[in-house]
């Protein structure tokens, strides 16, 4: 029988290919993780292994302090940030990090992507906010993500001068948020070239977001 952890290893490995498919990553940058439901464990990408060589078997199992429990490689260098999010946001089941181009262009200016498209109101329910500048090596990236996203509708944050972190109820939802984040960052960037995008009234953003999050689509399927 396949254990829940084996299933997550396969899912996390497969989801990394979605980052490639949607052009969100180059070389070995970017990573996906999933919380092991009911356990203080997460599954994450190994550090420095190319996307072509990722398999369910070489995914790394860590505890929520980022310590390796099972795996031959060292885990992604962003593991501490992922682990911090899982420790402080119990509702989060998946975390994704990318340096996708258009989203990073906003992050480089430290500017939030304004909510000017109905698709943004649907998925993000607000602007995509900017988190603080933070260096890798301690908890500051994780803390910046949690402080920015806690109480915010957006599942995506642009960490200043760095890149995108997204969260979701599971890893697939977090990958979807990363794909949508890049898509709207690109569209709003292009719109800006010809003028100032028109704001959407807060009431309409609220209504669109409520409908998308509660009424739209197949309710039983993962969004
Ligand atoms: Zn990064």
UniProtKB/TrEMBL annotation:
The residues covered by the Class II aldolase/adducin N-terminal domain are: 10-189
Taxonomically, which superkingdom?
Answer: Bacteria
Q: Which Pfam families match?
A: Aldolase_II (PF00596)
**GO cellular component annotations, sorted alphabetically?**
cytosol
Which GO terms of the molecular function aspect are on file? Answer: aldehyde-lyase activity; L-ribulose-phosphate 4-epimerase activity; metal ion binding
Q: Does the keyword Acyltransferase apply?
A: no
Q: Report whether Metal-binding shows up as a keyword of the record.
A: yes
Q: Which cofactor does it need?
A: Zn(2+)
Q: Which reaction does it catalyse?
A: L-ribulose 5-phosphate = D-xylulose 5-phosphate
InterPro entries reported for this sequence: Aldolase_class_II_sugar_metab, Aldolase_II/adducin_N, Aldolase_II/adducin_N_sf
Keywords recorded for this protein, A-Z: Metal-binding, Zinc
Could you state one GO biological process linked to this protein?
pentose catabolic process
Q: EC number(s)?
A: 5.1.3.4
Tell me its family: Belongs to the aldolase class II family. AraD/FucA subfamily.
What name appears for this protein in its UniProt entry?
A: L-ribulose-5-phosphate 4-epimerase
Q: What is the lineage of its organism?
A: Bacteria, Bacillati, Actinomycetota, Actinomycetes, Kitasatosporales
